[in-house]
Design goal:
By secondary structure, this protein is mainly beta. It has 3 helices and 27 strands. The longest helix has 21 residues. It comes from Microtus ochrogaster (Prairie vole).
Length: 375
């Protein structure tokens, strides 16, 4: 009995194995060829961010880009070099990108309101055109974009452009001067420039003293030569004063510049040093009266005068005259004396009172006053 029971269990086990080979369970499916290989997952990989250097993160200031282009004869445009040399007589056209562009160019062109110069603002660019160029036009041409908030605008330092143009002209090695004799003031607290600028970049330029006749070396310590400016006295001294001129040599030719009078100045910088003086502080009716306002200052610093006087509200007729001249104070020192005098004729009651003078220069203003009374 036990034998038959064991034999029956064995037959049932074999039958179940056959069934499992022919009919897989519903929750499983037969594996396909290669299905045991590892499949790629659908996980999203985080993008790798390249590491930035410390100096890149520290230097976050925007870099300046040149916005200037030069129009060529073939209708194309190119970026101008920092320095260009062109033949005088050519027409130069420069353009700078931007809807608000400002320009700077040699002061010579502004001084004489030259009609050869045209500056226009178009929708997308500013345009500067210089026709019939001459050696006198040699200098720096620059432009910059404007950042505006309403009516207030400031210069955009990231959008600029500039080029220095030498206009070469036959027989002109030096940029022409408007006079045959110029004055250069030597101040101990700032540089002084003898403006011997050339029109040929390769020209050899030397500085000479007229008396005693000798060449003044540009040693790079006291005096240096800059072809865009001239001879620069870095620390002017009193012994530098005198009459000098420049000599240029290029292409086997030489030329002498105009002469320059170097005057040493030692006047403190600041608002005008002003005094006021009346011809008389007590005046009889019918007499004439004058009040003098005087300023002593640097030779190259201009002074403007303004007056307030008793008869001003009643439109009292007065005469005001402004003058200036240079005076030498010994030891080579030169000073500019500026004066303004107000004159009242036929003194009346309304003319009595305070006479107030205000003198102003680039560094400030000074007000002084005096009284004039009936005697």
């Amino acid at each position: 009995m036990k034998v038959w029971l064991l034999l029956g269990l064995l037959l049932v086990h074999e039958a179940l194995q056959d069934v499992a080979g022919q009919h897989p369970p519903k929750n499983k499916r037969p594996k396909e060829q290669g299905e045991n290989r590892i499949k790629p997952t659908n996980k999203k990989a985080k993008p790798k961010v390249p590491k930035t250097k410390d100096r890149d993160s520290a230097d976050s200031t925007p870099k300046s880009q040149s916005i200037m282009m030069q129009a060529m004869d073939n209708g194309r445009f190119q970026k101008p070099g920092a320095v260009m040399s062109l033949t005088a007589g050519q027409t130069v056209e420069l353009r700078c990108k931007g809807s608000r562009v400002e320009w700077s160019y040699p002061a010579y062109l502004d001084t004489f309101k030259d009609s050869r110069l045209s500056v226009k603002q178009n929708e997308r660019y500013g345009q500067l055109t210089l026709a019939n160029s001459t050696s006198a036009d040699t200098g720096e041409f620059s432009c910059w974009g404007q950042l505006c908030n309403g009516y207030i605008c400031r210069r955009d330092e990231t959008r600029t452009g500039s080029t220095y143009i030498f206009f070469t002209e036959k027989g002109e090695l030096f940029v022409p001067s408007t006079s045959y004799f110029d004055v250069v003031y030597l101040n101990p607290d700032r540089q002084a420039v003898v403006p011997c600028r050339v029109t040929v970049p390769s020209a050899k330029v030397t500085l000479h003293r007229e008396f005693p006749a000798k060449e003044i070396p540009a040693n790079g310590t006291d005096i240096v030569y800059d072809m865009k400016r001239g001879f620069v006295y870095l620390q002017p001294q009193s012994h530098h004063q005198g009459v000098v001129y420049c000599k240029a040599e290029a292409g086997g030719k030489s030329q002498i510049s105009v002469k320059y009078q170097l005057l040493y100045v030692e006047v403190p910088s600041g608002p005008p040093s002003t005094t006021i003086l009346a011809s008389s502080n007590k005046v009889n009716g019918g007499d004439d009266i004058s009040v003098l306002c005087t300023v002593l200052g640097e030779p190259d610093v201009e002074v403007e005068f303004r007056w307030i006087f008793p008869g001003q509200k009643d439109e009292r007729p007065v005469t005001i005259q402004d003058t200036w001249r240079l005076i030498h104070q010994g030891l080579g020192h030169t000073t500019r004396i500026s004066q303004s005098v107000i004159t009242v004729e036929d003194f009346e009651t309304i003319d009595a009172g305070y006479y107030i003078c205000t003198a102003q220069n680039l560094r400030g203003q000074t007000t002084v006053a005096t009284t004039v009374e009936f005697s």
